[in-house]
Design a protein that fits this description.
- This is Putative transcriptional regulator.
- Pfam families: HVO_A0114.
- The protein is α/β, with parallel strands linked by helices.
- It has 5 helices and 5 strands, in the order βαβααααβββ.
- A hairpin with an 8-residue loop joins strand 3 and strand 4.
- Helix 4 packs across helix 5.
- The radius of gyration is 18 Å and the shape is globular.
């Protein structure tokens, strides 16, 4: 089973992970993280804006039904083709799916390479401030 791991929050961890990724690339020391696919959002708002309920429904329909074209994907979720096309492009940018050429009649086929999505949300209810106890807004 292939799982997409989505993490939300902890901007500092996101920053550290990005820096480590760049360092690994520069050192030519990248491994495949045991095949673990991860998508990180810095804030909950970024997550909600990117993975709307309509987009999640679209991802699930594509994973279940394997439509052969964008038009067929739109039919599966009973939505306008142009809206689905826009969502598919955004989901491709995020790395949640791929758009592969060569479907029937040259159609572009959306493909979700995951069986499951797991989400971890770090949502602090109280701003902890800096390490010295000074509130972050001060």
């Amino acid at each position: 089973m292939t799982t997409l791991h989505i993490t939300v929050g902890d901007r500092e961890q996101l920053r550290e992970d990005a820096l480590q990724f760049v360092q690994d690339i520069e050192a030519d020391d990248l491994d495949d993280q045991d095949g673990k696919a991860t998508l990180q959002f810095g804030t909950y708002d970024d997550f909600v804006d990117s993975l709307t309920p309509l987009r999640l429904e679209l991802i699930q329909a594509i994973a279940k039904e394997a439509p052969e074209s964008m038009r067929e994907a739109a039919r599966l979720v009973e939505r306008d083709v142009s809206d689905v096309h826009s969502d598919l492009k955004q989901l491709e940018v995020l790395g949640i799916l791929t758009l592969e050429e060569g479907g029937p009649s040259g159609a572009i086929q959306p493909v979700v390479p995951f069986d499951r999505i797991e989400v971890h949300i770090d949502y602090p209810l109280i701003d902890s401030g800096d390490a010295d106890g000074t509130p972050a807004s001060a």
